[in-house]
Amino acid sequence: MATETQTKVPGGALGNYVVEVRKEMRKVNWPKRKELISNTVLTLASSLAISIFIFGADQVISTALRFIYGS
To answer: What is the predicted pLDDT for the residue at 1?
Structure first.
């Protein structure tokens, strides 16, 4: 197991937690704006396509059941 040195900060355990979280957040590889926009558009388009597919399948199944049961 790797040994880590912990820095004592005011606030005890909560203070140490906040300091460690800030250190880790600096290490995160955040996406660039263009990449973020591209991924957001892809997510929204995929969600819309899946929603339309589910709506269509629901309509087909509902129509088929109404035809079968005659209501």
So the answer is: 52
